[in-house]
Every structure is written in structure tokens, then in C-alpha cells.
Design a protein that fits this description.
49% of the residues lie in helices and 4% in strands. With 98 residues, it is mainly alpha-helical. It has a domain at 15-81: Arc Repressor Mutant, subunit A, CATH 1.10.10.10. Helix 1 crosses helix 3, helix 1 (35-43) packs across helix 4 (74-92) and helix 3 crosses helix 4 (74-92). It is globular.
């Protein structure tokens, strides 16, 4: 999937987009944590503080910036979340297995 956001143009201090890291998906700088992962936790009903408890190496500023990025680029991140979900389901329940 071609990234719709060029590297260094995210407009978010804690977010990086580099086609050589995580397939060009937006990530929290200095980590391999995708914005889609943080958005997924949020969409499951977790608060930023609860997300930090599960990802203690991230600061709250990083989490809030990832959520801000998600809301600024909701369509893109929602597609990534859906693709991740499809990959997970297809691995767990491969065709003809059940």
C-alpha cells in the first residue's frame, strides 16, 4: 500500500512516516508502534492512560499525538486497522480449515 503521507510531512511532532519502516505506516517516532495500534486500543474503549499502562515505554504526549494523527487522517488509519483485522482473521481461520 502506498503511503498517502510523505515522510516528514505528518505535522505531528511524535509521529514519523518512513517507507522503510513498518511498510510506510505512521508510527510513534523511535518505536515500531503504529498509530493504527494506538487507535485500535482507543476504539476498543481504552483511555490514553490505560493505553500507557499497556505500552509503558510511551509517554502520554506520544499517545495523544498518535490519537490526534488518527483523527486528522481517520480514513487512512481506519483502512489500516481493517487490513490488519483481515490479516489476523485469515491467519487464524484459513480457508477450508473449519
Amino acid at each position: 500500500m502506498k503511503s498517502e503521507i510523505a515522510s516528514k510531512e505528518s505535522g505531528h511532532f511524535h509521529i514519523s512516516v518512513n517507507k522503510t519502516i513498518c511498510g510506510g505506516r505512521p508510527i510513534v517516532k523511535g518505536t515500531r508502534i503504529a498509530v493504527a495500534d494506538i487507535a485500535g486500543y482507543y476504539l476498543m474503549g481504552m483511555t490514553p492512560e490505560e493505553i500507557k499502562r499497556d505500552l509503558p515505554h510511551l509517554g502520554l504526549a506520544q499517545i495523544f499525538d498518535a490519537l490526534a494523527f488518527y483523527f486528522d487522517h481517520k480514513a487512512l488509519i481506519d483502512r489500516q486497522i481493517a487490513q490488519d483485522r483481515e490479516k489476523t482473521v485469515s491467519r487464524q481461520y484459513s480457508a477450508g480449515k473449519y
